[in-house]
Amino acid sequence: MRELYDISNIAHAIQLAVAPVFLLTAIGAFLGVMANRLARVIDRARVLEGKLASAQPSESSAIRAHLQILSRRAKLINMAITFCTMTALLVCGVIAILFFGSFIRFDITIPVSLIFILAMILMVMGLLWFLREVFLATSSLRIGPN
User: Fold this and answer.
1) Distance between CA 68 and CA 48 in Å, rounded?
2) Closest CA to 31 of 118, 96, 95, 123
3) Which residue from 38, 67, 22, 21 is spatially nearest to 130, judged by alpha carbons?
4) How far apart are CA 63 and CA 129, in angstroms?
């Protein structure tokens, strides 16, 4: 009978730990989008830096202004990636605590709740920084001849 209890205890622990794994999948998707945007910003900055060396003085100031915007965008995306990565780490901590809490007899409700709340705060902050970057990219968008 003891073995059955242990197996059901493990099954229950796995059930508890699986729900946050779906959140990790979403965070991974967000991180992929953000990393792609950062890569595009870096590629664009490298192209403009290459043009800056041979640019006329009249073009040089416009290129420098564009590079400053790209620099701000890269910093915003970097912060968004940092916050979302910290979220993923905290969610992994929640999963570990939920799993180990099934075997070690201590009350895990407060640590799990606090870590999960902190993870959600960091997730919101990461998404807000990402939104700021999107707004900056949109506001600096130039289509067609200037």
Assistant:
1) 11
2) 123
3) 38
4) 25
Better-predicted residue by pLDDT, 15 or 56: 56
Spatial CB neighbours of 12, under 8 Å, sequence gap ≥ 6 = 102
Which residues have C-beta within 8 Å of that of residue 78, sequence separation ≥ 6? 38
Query: What's the pTM value of the predicted model, to 2 decimals?
Result: 0.83
CA dihedral 94, 97, 98, 102 (to 10 degrees): 180
Rounded to 10 deg, the angle between the 109-139 and 57-101 helix axes is: 160
Between 17 and 54, the higher pLDDT residue: 54
Q: What is the pLDDT of residues 114-133, one digit of tens each?
A: 999 999 999 999 999 999 99
Segments forming the whole domain that contains residue 15: 2-36+74-139
In the block, which residue shows the tokens 């640019």?
55
**Structural domain count, the chain:** 1
